[in-house]
Amino acid sequence: MGPEIYLLLIVLGIIALILLTIIGKFISLWFQAFVSGTPISLFNIVGMSLRKIPPRVIVSARINSFKAGLKQISVSDLETHFMAGGNVIAVVQAMIAADKANIPLDWKRATAIDLAGRDLLEAVRTSVNPKVIDCPPQHSQGKPSYIAGVAKDGIQLLCRARVTVRTNIVQLVGGATEETIIARVGEGIVGAIGGTDTYNEVLESPQRISKLVLEKGLDSQTAFEILSIDIADIDVGENIGATLRTKKAQADMEIARAEAEKRRAMAVAAEQEWTAKVMENQAQVPLAMAEALKTGHIGYYDNLKFQNLQSDTEMRSSLGKENKGIK
Predict the structure, then answer these.
(1) Bond from prior residue into 130 cis (ω within 30 degrees of 0)
(2) CB-count burial class (<10 Å; 0-12, 13-18, 19+) for 149
(3) CA-based nearest residue to 113, from 181, 175, 179, 182
(4) What is the pLDDT of residue 156?
(5) DSSP character for 176?
(6) Model's pTM, two decimal places?
């Protein structure tokens, strides 16, 4: 063979080495899938890389699902879910956990839940191991908070409840979250306390509140199923009824004072009006006397008698006022 043949073989060898180096990782994934009993063609694995899909993620998810008995999940399903922005590994793990726990969960529902932004694996775990929700939740400083309700006798009760729930997979998409459960349970507790005649009835049997709240079906249209509601703590608060009655009495007193002040002002106004009329009438007396003297209806001596009588009346009024002041 001539030197041209050797040169050609060297070039072909270099090219082959480069190709083997490039596709070496794909061959390892193909061999891993082959020995796991879930053969995936080498061209399919290379195509994943060209479609910007990490082949290792898809191959690992396929092997895990196939080994767990979920043979209905195809490579195409895994690729489609990844390209839609889903978490392939988490969905496969959740479906495996659901299958082992005999929880009905198909691929379509699982991917829909994952694409909706819900933590599917955590939801499946909560379905198997129910979790407890504090109602109301504690403050950020760790201090306990309470739900305030008032019985018919006006006594305020402060309650804390612990709600045991498990995930409702069927309503996980579109169902209300924990905040709705907490709000509904709080509303139910307030209503149950408000329906009791005295606060002693609640203190004697707190389970009555739990029973009334559970009967309302508070988990309707939510992503959870309420298993139990337990009253963790009850404290007696303020006497709201007495406070309201006191405020009402104070308000009634202020109204009465306003009405009395109104009547006093009207009386003062009437007195001033009467005094003005008297002064007006008194001002008419000299004019009438002058007219009577002019027309001859009364004589000069009659006028003097009237003036003496008026002076005597004024003197007596003045003496009466002085004697009243002395007393």
Answers:
(1) no
(2) buried
(3) 175
(4) 85
(5) B
(6) 0.61
- For 233-262, write each residue's pLDDT tens digit: 888 888 888 888 888 889 889 998 888 888
**pLDDT of 76 higher than 80:** yes
Q: Mind listing the pLDDT tens digit for each residue in 199-213? A: 888 888 888 888 888
Domains and their CATH numbers in the chain: 3-128 (no CATH), 131-239 (3.30.479.30)
Distance CA 178, CA 137 (A): 11
pLDDT tens digits along 271-310:
888 877 777 776 776 777 677 666 766 665 666 676 677 6
pLDDT at 55 over 70: yes
Instruction: For helices 107-115 and 75-83, give the axis angle rounded to 10 degrees.
Output: 20
**Alpha carbons 2 and 254: distance in angstroms, whole number:** 123
Torsion angle, CA of 121/122/123/126, rounded to 10 degrees?
130
DSSP state of 10: H
Q: How distant, in Å, are the alpha carbons of 28, 44, 48, 50, 265 from that of 53?
A: 17, 11, 5, 7, 91
Cα–Cα distance, 252 to 287 (Å, whole number): 53
